[in-house]
Amino acid sequence: MLEITPQIRIAESELQERFIRAPGPGGQNVNKVETAVQLSFDIASSPSLPEAVRARLLLRNDRRIDQAGVVRIEAHRHRTRERNRADARERLVALIREATARPRPRIATRPTKGSQRRRLEAKRKRGRDKQLRRVRPGED
Questions:
Q1: Are strands 70-75 and 36-42 parallel, antiparallel or unpaired?
Q2: Which ranges are annotated Basic residues under compositional bias (predicted)?
């Protein structure tokens, strides 16, 4: 059981792990041992996630989440399979925890009189500067 929050727990059966060879340097060990882990979790069809959390996760613009709603996390930072497995799970927990926080609603505000006045003055100044740079016909 993978605990995200006290209310959200994911069963081991919902997680798929595949062990692959890790990229990068590592000597003789890297070509023989599959220490990197590829962790997959189906967000779209998981009964463990509340609907609001699922919706926020699927709306995220994250390259790890595909069109089918499956998140894939690759971990190959460490030399051992166990540490990479733990790292992948920690990253999945962090991703889901971020989605549990409700975004604060934006409160529309109006620009102040001072900011409006400064904006218009800056536009006038910019227009004057451009006008002074202009070469008029016959003034060559």
A1: antiparallel
A2: 115-128
Strands 36-42 and 15-20: antiparallel
Structure tokens at 1: 């059981």
The token duo for 134 is 């202009």
Q: Is 67 exposed, middle or buried (0-12, 13-18, 19+ CB in 10 A)?
A: exposed
Domain ranges of the chain: 2-100
For residue 31, the model assigns a pLDDT of 67
Q: Helix and strand tally (H, E) in the chain? A: 3, 5
CATH number of 2-100: 3.30.160.20
Are residues 30 and 22 in contact, defined by beta-carbon separation less than 8 angstroms?
yes
Give residue 116's pLDDT: 97
Q: Mark the ranges of the chain whose per-residue pLDDT is less than 50.
A: none
Which ranges in 18-112 belong to alpha helices (H)? Answer: 51-59, 81-100
Q: Angle 51-59/81-100 helices, nearest 10 degrees?
A: 100
